[in-house]
Amino acid sequence: MNAPNRYELYVLDDGEKPVEIIEDTKIPNAATIKIVKQDHTLGNMLRAQLLSMPQILFAGYKVPHPLHPHFIIKIQTDGTMTPQAVLEQACTKLIGTMSSLENKFKREFSFKDVEGTVGAGGATAATDDPYGGSGMGGTGGAWPGGRDYLDF
Amino acid sequence: MQGHDDLEPTVHIRELKKDKVNFVLKNVDLAFANSLRRVMMADIPTVAIDMVEIEINTTVLPDEFIAHRLGMVPLASSNCDEAIRNTRDCTCLAGCDSCSIMLVLNVACHDHHTMDVTSHHLDVVPPGTPGTWGDGEEQEHDAGEELSKRGERFGHPVGKDEPGTPPVLLCKIRKGQELKLRCVAKKGIAKEHAKWSPCSAVSFEYDPYNKLRHTTHWFESDERGEWPLSENAKEEEPPRDDEPFDFNAQPSQFYFEVETDGSLGPQEVVMKGLAELQTKLANLILGLKTQPELDILTGGEQQPNGNNADGWGAGGGGGGGWGAASGNGGGWGGSASPTRGGAATSAWGATSPHSSGGATSTWGGGANAGWGSPEQQSNGWNV
Ligand SMILES: [Zn+2]
After folding, report:
1. DNA-directed RNA polymerase RBP11-like dimerisation domain: which residues (chain A) (predicted)?
2. What domains are defined for chain A?
3. Which of A60, A88, A95 sits opposite B325 (nearest CB)?
């Protein structure tokens, strides 16, 4: 009855900022970045990517409370880049990895015929070519080719 | 953490069936692979029955019991992104053809045999049928293109009209009993309710020999005898008996099997999963870039059109648009958070079972608690 709508876990409220940066006053080149309406899916992936980058001295994330739909990620750099610039770069690199993976998946899927039951029609008639053909083009395109983040 | 940065990620599909795909993902982090798993399970929209209006129920099951079962029936949801809106984003008041699908069920038993009421008895009311969404109320508001993006079977129970596919049993009735109801199916994701998950199971394995010691095998007398190897062990070198433990080693090869409930095909699930992850990252980049001009922002979803007309895709990391990042450090100070205090001081770190997998959240699902890697935590941070 009193529970908030479940979609508030992942939909920003009206006017809510998706990101909040809190500069660290005691540690040089460090910031804590609060990312709202996101969870471990994004947080852990970013943390791992950041740690693989040479500019990073520290990167860690936590979900402070399981009922609060945000996580915070703390970043300290070596000073060659600001924490948020390095976070942006981490996102870019991850998107690059994913779009290359997307292409590889597409290739692999095109090599594989669905074994058995292709023609069964019925409920999955529209999925015969779930990724090609009708309407799916939007997400199918390779990242570098023509699509950029503004399309999202 | 480093190690496979230099190598391109690769994927090999071992098996593709109508409702499942089995693949091996190589040269990515554990965190990356786990995020893919999580996003496929919990972030891909489908349609499922969300409201049920029961007119007659003289079966042995109470209304809510039946309503719950109806919610779990998988409905064909191909191209859900474009084919249906979220009701919360729709201009209608309580439901319309752009954001909802009406299904009806009307079954009565007239003979002396027990009769099964199944998902095959659910009929979709075709969009545009007058009176579906209230009397005479025209759906003048922007109807959108959703209807034209729908496949023929969109919203129909999976397996209906597909000979040989067993239906979902909802209830059994005997002579004189009747069930008559109307359902409204809506779009949603599994973070809201698991009925919207396109996946019935996602298996995720790495390091079949446990070389990394991310888990401990309890055994009576003989570890190898009591812990049979998984099939995936054939894909890797067995450890030599005298092999020393490499505590710097990182997993880089992941075995997935994505099984869907039929609402989406496995290919659509995997590709949508990757696309969804990119969307999350792209939105984060946007949020970071628009940070200095906080006042301009009006909610996350409208952002993409306003600022940042500069090409991001072209830069490929570092060039062009990125230059701004070093200059706007000043923007930070202004954004001190008033809301952060309470939560951030929780004692979370001390007791947390959260491992790097993050898989212990409600949505981690299944047996993955054991999969999280025992990476070190420092003072509550997953580092
Ligand atoms: Zn509507």
Report:
1. 30-103
2. 8-104 (3.30.1360.10)
3. A88
